[in-house]
Amino acid sequence: MYGSDGAGDNAERTAFRKAEKKYKLYYEEHSKSSKKKKQPQQVDLSEVLDPKSISESYNQKGELPPGIVAVNCGFNRPVFRLEDRPGFYFIPGALTVEEQCQWIRASLRKFPQPPNRTNHNAIYGPIRNLFVAAQEGKVLVEEEGSDNCLDSESSASVSNGDAHRWKFYEEDIARSRAKSCKSVSASVLLRKLRWSTLGLQFDWSKRNYDVSLPYNKIPDALCQLAKRMAEPAMPIGEEFRPEAAIVNYFGLGDTLGGHLDDMEADWSKPIVSMSLGCKAIFLLGGKSRQDEPLAMFLRSGDVVLMAGEARECFHGVPRVFTDEENAEVTPLESQFLHIDDHCYLEYIRTSRININIRQVF
Ligand code: OGA
Ligand code: MN
């Protein structure tokens, strides 16, 4: 599902694939002699639905573009749905800037902690304190044997369960070992963090929940938030039960290929999807990849709900805008002013985080 290339048979020919290609980041060809920075190709964004401007014109003039309906649900912000996509809802600016910062911090510092799994587990085993290690300039080094390179000074240790052990070391110590041991800097690993899973652990290789894996419940504050956000898409009188969440991390050029989330038992329950950081383009297709998808911007603080029939619709993220002009992260910049927050700001200026909360059973 990660990286949109090769998504399904005949992928090149489907309407969904065409839209992914249209919005994906490509660079201008330029002559080898040119020393100029490579320039992103211009993309026609005129057909991308803009939740922010929809919300603004609704608030100011009570006007809505054709096909968009405001939902009456006693929520403290306008909630919209699409006339021709039952079960799909969007709530522009659903999270306050403070809430966005809270969940950015948690997504980087807490959510990738064991027993939660990340894309790094397969190679390095569980990694503890990756974010702090990246801040401290540490380097993850593979131990040659179990006894000969152990260092009690190391603040974090990992193991993937077999003979291979990886530990964080100060950069200079790591450098002295680099000749004989494999190593990778924590900041590189942080940049390569693509997902972490909260609550019930999702097994990406089997594309299923693995209930045999140890897990912690979804943090209470995130549960409460998801319940509140899910309300517009819930049957009256029923409460959403968050049991699992997938956190996606996107950097420059990263995409999420068209897919369905079909591993949860009850599709009448919504998936609550929160966007943090850089602006992205989200594609909402139909039940077939042949259906023309709708493109919409998602900004930091926007929430999307997919329930009912919308659960059967292909969707994905072909583009994240990590450049200053288009990322639209200025509100976060003024919130992350404190020196201690610099590391979060530095990350989120060129990244997007998506927290995707699900009721599994
Ligand atoms: C997902 C997903 C959408 C997004 O994780 O299943 O569809 O906005 N994410 O990142
Ligand atoms: Mn999805």
Q: What would you say this structure looks like, in words?
A:
By secondary structure, the protein is an alpha+beta fold. 23% of the residues lie in helices and 22% in strands. The chain contains 11 helices and 18 strands. The strands form 4 sheets. An 8-stranded antiparallel sheet has the order 1-2-3-16-13-18-11-8, covered by helices on one side. The radius of gyration is 21 Å and the shape is globular. Bound molecules: N-oxalylglycine and manganese (II) ion (MN). N-oxalylglycine binds next to strand 11, strand 13, strand 17 and strand 18.
How do you describe this structure in short?
Helices cover 23% and strands 22% of the residues.
Topology:
Layout: H1 15-23, H2 51-61, E1 68-71, E2 79-82, E3 88-91, H3 97-109, H4 121-124, H5 130-135, E4 139-142, E5 157-159, E6 165-169, H6 171-177, E7 183-185, H7 186-191, E8 195-199, E9 202-203, E10 208-209, H8 220-230, E11 244-250, E12 256-259, E13 271-277, E14 280-284, E15 294-298, E16 303-306, E17 315-320, H9 324-327, H10 330-335, H11 342-348, E18 352-358
This protein binds N-oxalylglycine and manganese (II) ion.
